[in-house]
What we know:
Elements: E1 3-6, H1 16-22, H2 34-42, E2 46-48, E3 64-67, E4 86-90, E5 94-99, H3 116-123, E6 148-154, H4 157-168, E7 173-181, E8 188-192, E9 195-198, E10 204-206, E11 213-218, E12 221-229, E13 233-240, H5 247-254, H6 268-276, E14 286-295, E15 298-303, H7 308-316
Parallel strand pairs: 6-14
Antiparallel strand pairs: 1-3, 2-3, 4-5, 5-6, 7-13, 7-14, 8-12, 9-10, 9-11, 12-13, 14-15
Helix pairs in contact: 1-2
Amino acid sequence: MPFTHIIKFHEANQRLDRFVMHQGFATKDTLSSRSECTDAIHNGFIVVNDAKTKPSYVLKTGDIVTFLEQAKKHTSILPNPNLPLEILFENQYFLILNKPAGIAMHPIAFSDTQTVANWLIAHFPETRSVGENTLRPGIVHRLDKDTSGVCIAAKTQEAFIALKDLFKKHSVQKTYVAIVHGHIIPKKGTVDTAIARSLTLGKQAVADNDLMVRGKIRAATTRYTVLRSSVDFDVVEAQPKTGRMHQIRVHLFSIGHPIVGDKLYSTKLTRKADRERADGPKRHLLHAKRLSFTLFGEDYDFESALPADFLQFLDTIQ
């Protein structure tokens, strides 16, 4: 049965999605996160005055908010077994996957199906109950959609909690390979600058005195080594010691060497150079090459080979 609530004076002047999340509509049996509430509103399962509206709708006194029964049926993501993910390793606790570029780690909405999470619940249904969010079953850490390489998915809640703790304590050694514009000097070093969400740029950025930010300013450290150089590019190994959103991309851009193919963290010159190359990349050339950690007393070390598009670009810059 649908549940209806009439907005009282003290409940007015707030966004619909915030009201749904914090005023009792969302429960463990229905919606458990802000993203789930937003998706239910987008799909018309939570309506105002019997009409579909936006999550950003500002409620007024007397508005009638209706939570439809169908919303309960859309609080779990859809399985999709047909994605090109390779299992590099599996045990009773976790999976190590090789993710191609172009596949996101988890859906933004329940209707999305082209993600690692959709593939996971198709092949490993037990992961539905693993994690902190029904949109991210088993997902321990994230790679950007267009970043390829090695990633972990937990098969049990015990493993999920333990792995999340390892990442939180920076006890997982992560190694990436990137191709960047220009030549980095010195060839080995550390970028140790905080990262925040920029209000003006609409993306992550290095936090400095001139940056207006939204949310927290977070410490971030990335060690890098130039592996080899060509006329216009460097091949760089990067080891992030923290795990901030877009960290490697932001840090390399901040020192004047954006990753080849990166449309978000780039300059007009590098975007033009990428467009003008006949063999230009279709995505940013960043690859998660290696993960090493210790879990439940066992040492693990996994590596993912460079993908074809990465190797093809390397061949052109010999």
